[in-house]
Design goal:
By secondary structure, the protein is α/β, with parallel strands linked by helices. It folds into two domains: 2-182, Hexapeptide repeat proteins (UDP N-Acetylglucosamine Acyltransferase, domain 1), CATH 2.160.10; 186-220. The protein is built from five helices and 16 strands. It has a seven-stranded mixed sheet. The chain has a five-stranded parallel sheet with strand order 1-4-7-10-13. A hairpin with a 2-residue loop joins strand 15 and strand 16 (173-174). It starts with a helix and ends with a helix. Mean pLDDT is 86; it is low at 178-182.
Amino acid sequence: MFQRMKEDIRCIFDQDPAARSTFEVVLTYSGLHAIWSHRVAHALYKKKLLFLARVVSQISRFFTGIEIHPGATIGRRFFIDHGMGVVVGETCEIGNDVTIYQGVTLGGTGKEKGKRHPTLCDNVLVASGAKVLGSITIGENSKVGAGSVVLKDVPADSTVVGIPGTIVISNGVKVKSKYDHQEMPDPVADKCRMLEDELEQLKKRFIEIEKFVEKEGNLL
């Protein structure tokens, strides 16, 4: 147990250049507190002490702002950076050396039973505010961009961005996509442009009718 705790602390020093001392990390890093609390809750969960497991997880949520269901399976060196608002569902499976940031949701898409939350393989990074939903798999060494909504499997060594998530890099090669990340579709702007086009056509039609009426008036 103490060896795993030391490994968790070393992981923070490897991932976060702002970490200055072991004392600071142990006392102030909420992501570390959430992971340690989850280990206790998960042990209770496996012993079928479901109520106690849930109590531990909710106490942890109250103090850290990070909600990890006791049933989630988490590997080694899991790093939660600035973890406020992170949610990890019951049937999530998280591999080794995974990093997630604030506001990330690893959730389900409905009320289905069984495996309904994502699987994150080793060395996955999920950036701030991303939502990974459903019983899908994010492959090894893949990255999910900030604010993305991922609803389908992502192969290994890929980068996915956008709403819905679109693969933009696969095996280090940029994937041709209909949209660049900085040029994601804006349905509101598209609708406004459509209305402007229709208004312009109505103006032209009105001018044509006005000219026709004026011409007919002159003939009379």
